[in-house]
Amino acid sequence: MSKFQEVFATYWPHIVFVLSFVASAIAAVHAAMTKQDVRAATGWVAVILFSPIFGALLYAIAGINRIRKERVSQQRTSTMYSEEVIEPLLVHDVVPFSGPQFAALKILGDHVSDFRLLGRNTIKLLSGGDETYPAMLEAIRSARRSIALQSYIFDHDQVGMEIAQELINAKNRGIEVRVLIDAVGSRYSHPPITKMLVKAGVTTALFMRPVIGIKLVYANLRSHRKLLVIDGVHGLTGGMNIRESFVTAIAGDQVTHDTHFKVSGPIVHQLIVNFAHDWYFTTNEKLSGEDWFVKDIPDFVPVGVPLRCVPSGPDSTLGNTHNMLLGALSVAQKHVRIQSPYFLPDQQLIAALSTAARRGVVVDVVIPGANNLKLVNAAMSAQLDQLIQTGCRIWRASGTFDHSKLFTVDQAWSYIGSSNIDPRSLRLNFELDIEVYDKALSGQLDARMDATIATATLITLSSLNRQPFWIRLRNKFVWLASPYL
What we know:
By secondary structure, this protein is an alpha+beta fold. The protein has 3 domains: 3-63; 69-96 and 116-306, Endonuclease Chain A (Endonuclease, Chain A, 2-Layer Sandwich); 320-484, Endonuclease Chain A (Endonuclease, Chain A), CATH 3.30.870.10. Helix content is 43%, strand content 18%. α1 runs antiparallel to α2 (38-50), α2 runs antiparallel to α3 and α7 packs parallel to α8.
């Protein structure tokens, strides 16, 4: 036995203790110095200190934000419309479109988002896969120059293969095609759809691929954005992934519900700018030229709908959606409607919702009766009492799972897109949402949510208290981990 082996055999407990102490100290200091949310910092420091070696290792894998803010944000402004082009598209006064209270919200958006509020857009609500996927297929077939598709999940199933084949057909017609799928989301089906696309020569990339074989390094930093842009002038975006469970003809009475949106106008330029910035971050390929970016103003509608993209993520856009939701709740005067599949607001949002309800604003929140994530459902249930006791109305929808993410204020302003109201969407994921100043769309979304409420069950404090103690206790323990779900 060598001298080193003899020393290690004798003193290994001391060596392990010292290594554990040093690793825990470094990790705890890093968490305390870099986390902006005190709950996240406290939680990670506790995990690190009370779980020697394992806690530091877990923090190294899942707790460190490895995104470089300057790189992930550097291309967005460089590809936007010039001031000369954008000036006639700007909306300076939103009062005619929504109402007096929204003037302050427009100012907030100007400070939160890199993008300006632009008019002369159109937007159309698409209900579920039955309307969304045919619209996507039609758009891809109509492409003449370029196709940009980004999704969190792109399943290798009947729907996914049909869309993938149309992308392949477009590539074979000479169309520039780029497909960006989240590295984790790509693994929701086997084999991944990327193999089909790459084999056919479609330029495809995975957002935040594993580094040196460590698959969990970026597990908490996902691209949850969903968009399709054709020729730089036609777009679809919203909350829908690509999977057959959203199609009635395939899933039958177990179909998953959702919403998506078809848009045209200068908002599409903002969508392609977002895609180009994510594509560059992932591949180092800088998209340029008129195949991707329309420099001259196309024949937009004369007035249209004021729209603005609001990207958010763990880079320089951290907190964007959180700030927009707080601002919207502060200007609400009559009615706030929210539909979210994963509703885990933090204490600031709970306080804002509660304050709105106490001011006399009707606050209706629709959550799924059937949820596809049991742990999230348990955590949601554990904190509903905080909202109910302040006057908010919480509804559990009947029927199958609804993946829609909708937020409206006073039947005049809407916030739509990929963001859930949970810690993952608000702090960890890269999300893409659109604020809409339009009474017509808000009315459509309100009618959709009201129809769901009509057959939903109102959750009350008594109904929560009637649950068995062990269920309430389980929910509370799961809720403690809600910042990490």
